[in-house]
């Protein structure tokens, strides 16, 4: 279940009631589903691709973005009954649903949203700088001109798909070594040309991520996502390692901020 953040709403948990359609753009094949609150969501399957690690990245990075005041669809936990597979004719989808039984993650479905076009829709320097800063913090490799992972909905930018962030945690032993490294791949960021206020955005954004906020975000990671063959410790120890890594990265953020400024220059 979701845990309340300081001065924040808890992450809701819904149950999937209907598989609507697959979204075959990504390798993990997310899907539009309907839930028991009558809402529509884009479901990220625990049994797909990188497995629970991708869901942890979606959750932690997404909720950090929300804490920073960046526009992102609501994130919810989704209970998935493997019996839903019986109504699907595609064997691949059947296997994916069965492999993902239990707690998954989804983002609110934004009907009518369109993909962001950096040529047609330039972004103001303040918002671009805040998004670039955020992506450098969470080491998000997947916000490039080829794959922006940005939508435009009701004329507002929306950040989506953070499963490729926090890539340090694949094959991780819990060490915070590397937390203070620059993020060289920020040079490929789709919004970097507009991010002319990185130095100004830095103190404002860092102030929105005090230790209690980071701790509350990490505490929301479900136990079931922290178990399995790649778990290096019990869930509480792993959460502590995530907190320590992120707090170290924030403390040493000058490195990634200066790298982004150099890349833009």
UniProtKB/TrEMBL annotation:
Locate the HipA-like kinase domain: which residues?
22-246
Q: Which Pfam families match?
A: HipA_2
Q: Sorted alphabetically, which InterPro entries does this protein's record hold?
A: HipA_2
Q: What is this protein called?
A: HipA-like kinase domain-containing protein
Q: Which species is the source of this protein?
A: Pseudoxanthomonas wuyuanensis
